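Quick entry between incubations.
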Amino acid sequence: MKFSMLKTRTILLVAIFLAIMVAFGVRLMQMQIVDGEEYLSQISQGTQKTQRVKAARGEIVDRYGRPFAVNQVGFNVVLDRAFLAAGSENEIILRLTDLLTQSGESWIDNLPITQSEPFTFLEDRDEDVAKLKKYVNVNEYATADYVMHWLIEEYGLEEYTSEEARILAGVRYEMVQKDFSYITPYVFATDISIETATKIKEHSYELLGADIEQTTVREYPTGTIAPHVIGITGPIYENELAQLGEGYNLDDTVGKSGIELGLESELRGTDGTREIFINSSGEVVDVIETKSPEPGNTVVTTIDKNLQSIAQEALQLQIEYLQTYAEAGKGKEAFAGAAVAIDVKTGEILVAASYPGYDLNTYYDDYSTLAADTVNNALYNRAFQGTYTPGSIFKPATALAGLATGVIDANSTVYCGQVYTRFPDYPARCLSMHRDINVVRALQESCNIFFYDVGYRAGIENIDKYAMALGLGVNPNIDILMGDQSFYSATGTLSSPELSASRGEIWNPGDVIQSAIGQFDNKFSPIQLASYCATIANRGTRMRPTLVRSIESYDMSQTIREHEPTVVSQLEEDPSVFDPIIQGMVNCARIGSGSYYSGYLGKTFADYEIDVACKTGTPETAQFPNSTFIADAPVDDPQIAVAVGIEKGWHGYTGIPVARAIFDGYFYSQVSSETPQQSGQLLP
Amino acid sequence: MKNNRRFIETIKYCCYALFLTGLYVIQTTPHFLEISGVKPGLIVPAVICIAMYEGEFAGGLLGAYGGMLCDLGSYTIFGFHAILLLILATATGLGIIYFIKNNRLNAIFLCGGALALLNFLNYFFYFGIWDYENAWMLLVTSYLPAVLCSILFVPLFYWLFGWSNQYFESKVKE
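Done. Structure below.
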């Protein structure tokens, strides 16, 4: 009985074993015989890898189609994992570096360690050093020698000399950082000359896996014109990769500042793909482009390149003129400034000049110098981000508050005895004794007492209300045709009891009179001041400033989006309320402070053929007064409004030559065509 | 008495089969019990522990069943795990009867050996012989940690099946 049970059990186990073996055998037979051919063809086909084909970046042009940022054909050296034999990386890299060195070209090497022994970490690369130490998993006190030792071990560089090992470690480390793989080729060197590209092609038989890729290289034909607005591109950082999300890779180039950054999604384009088929021996048997790359869109800015150039030159010449000819303490210290010109009817920004500037073409070479110069701060976009106390150019806003609230009318007078006596313990002064003065003459002669009194009677709430209606103290929200997204600009500050309270300070009655003449906490950017001037010229209709005229297809054959002038706010008051203000500003240009100073240009607005409305401002600062100036023209049919600010420029009128140069450029050397030119057509 | 034993043993093996099915569900639930990308294999140590208590026949049968479950949840050819686990569980049952003491340490060794063998064969047939570049990394970073991770469950299974074996035996004796 026992024997029988054991036998039964054994037979049962063997039977199950055989049954499974049969099932296994049947499955194997199916694979080998029935589906054998299919599997064989799959094996011979090998693996398939999808690679990206980068799209050309869209171009940036001025309002007439003249190029700011374009693409030139360039040559990159690219390492492709699919073609690179395993274990051959170091030899191929050394051959490439030899060839590039012979041709005087460089390759990408961001390893923050010196090129030769004794190895030390590079200065000012603390962040990169920390990242490297994290990568090699050593503590923060590890020396460069120790890190190199680790890299040599990691990349198998023991047999190379220390110089060769350093070169190889630099490239191999960068390859890891850039996620080099079958899917992501590694860009070894960018924008090499055609001669070097040819040389590398000639040696292709010994450089398997290295290839020359024809690509587009960002070029700025006029790199010094509007650099802050146009912006720059650069390699993507890890944190940007996380922010930008899908569609980006570690070897991508993205906009870093200006329009290049703000309109990244339009400029970028859509990458294509190609399939690479590798057989079981690792050889590439076929390459098929499955999706063609679509180039990015072209951005037509509102900037007039010629006018921008004129404004930049005028700003520079005027500041140099002051530095050369002005007396110490009276403008000689001028060192920086900004000028903005805006189309009064549409809000389109024609000029956004910031001095000192820089050259986009040499940006990365000059970066350390530019970034270190914190006094001149050339990288700072003063036109949009700089905020300046406006001084007397704020007076039209106070005048509007007085006129609109009925505190004064065009004929009301205030007695100016040079000292404002309302606050006995705070005798605020005027520069002259104007005696009985009305709003027109008060603007023409910039009488402080008149505006102290009007400001006091109108009250800070009304001053701020009308200032904001004119675009002061509110974010200009510069339109770039990207929906709610706007170009970065400062909001500035308007004096108010709330602002004082937020600093823990008490709002004194005298603060309102200082605010009324554009002092105290009032601070605005040049773009806000230009928009303010344009709104006065428009008699209360404030247009949204815009920096992008249209977004076109890459070849400009199709308009994707176009700027439509947008009214941000409209004063309810009768437009005639602006009459005395504009008259006062016209008088300021003809016989007031607008006619006093000619600067480097040798010309003022006194005898200008076109009627100009202007106002000068001499805001007091901790050191020397700044210069602020606003103007619009022609008065009868306003077209352009300008704001100029010169740091330590001493008096508002020192901005006149810059504004006059811009007006000359706008009215007398304007290009004939205002239609963006299509690709391939000659520019006007 | 005889009929009672047969009935209780049928109940017991059904419970074991259900338990193995439950382990299969746990083992194939994405990210469940996963630590740093390493997921333990639960069926193999369970089958070996069952074989240690239940002998070569029940162990072999449940080994084949557990192997089939493994085959269902993997990309291997159907039958690969079933054959191996049938052999390993039968051998374990016979080994415990004739050569090896039935204790926790031996359970760890036997389960560890079975897991190592199965995982190595898996690696060898599916990666090793194809000479993929850096395939050894897979062995070090995936297979080996999975084996170690699975061994952690052996004491639990050993205790559980020891207890259930005694429980059902006591029921038979009642």
